[in-house]
Design goal:
about 190 residues; 11 strands; about 20% helix; about 45% strand
């Protein structure tokens, strides 16, 4: 899953530091009629064409030398062209002000080649004050270059950093409406 590796890099850099296009073809992503239940949140993912939502975790090294556990719930669609993700990580003394959230988004965007972000704007993430950005760019895996659009929201709840990401290959039917439908469905418990 090429996008999941990219997403881990996004979030790890965003935490350690302290894509908008509509498809010309009809929207073909169908969302489930029931919410996916996880221990800390629930969300309505698209109906999978390759299998269920997968959970993974990994220890990440923080800039201060400590470690934290990154929790990742992901679903890839359309032969891994699109990915819908919810990530969270507990990090002590995390700031949730606009400047800190923007810095985290910048860390994530730095992983794209030729990143062209739109303006960062205020948003909400399950009712929490959040920042969001949409960016286009390229991602290279081996000799293959993928043109992608990423929709990201990030928020802080106490010491927990939450990130919602939708990564869409620009040749797929994944749209801004699909990304927002998913991101708006995420409810933190």
């Amino acid at each position: 899953m090429r996008f999941l590796k990219l997403t881990f890099a996004f979030f790890i850099l965003a935490v350690a530091a302290g894509l908008a296009q509509n498809s010309a073809s009809a929207n073909s992503i169908v969302f489930s009629s029931t919410a996916y239940e996880a221990p800390s949140f629930y969300a309505t993912y698209p109906v999978p064409d390759k299998g269920p939502v997968t959970y993974s975790s990994q220890e990440v090294k923080l800039k201060n030398g400590g470690t934290a556990t990154l929790h990742n719930y992901s679903l890839s669609l359309q032969n891994d062209e699109d990915a819908f993700l919810v990530l969270y990580c507990d990090i002590p003394n995390t700031r949730g002000d606009t400047a800190a959230l923007d810095q985290m988004l910048d860390g994530a965007l730095a992983q794209f080649d030729n990143a062209k972000p739109g303006p960062k704007t205020d948003s909400t993430y399950s009712g929490l004050p959040a920042r969001m950005v949409v960016a286009t760019g390229t991602y290279t895996s081996g000799k293959t270059v993928f043109n992608v659009t990423a929709y990201q929201r990030i928020a802080v709840q106490g010491s927990r950093v939450w990130q919602g990401i939708v990564i869409c290959d620009q040749n797929s039917n994944c749209t801004a409406d699909d990304a927002n439908k998913f991101l708006n469905s995420i409810k933190i418990r």
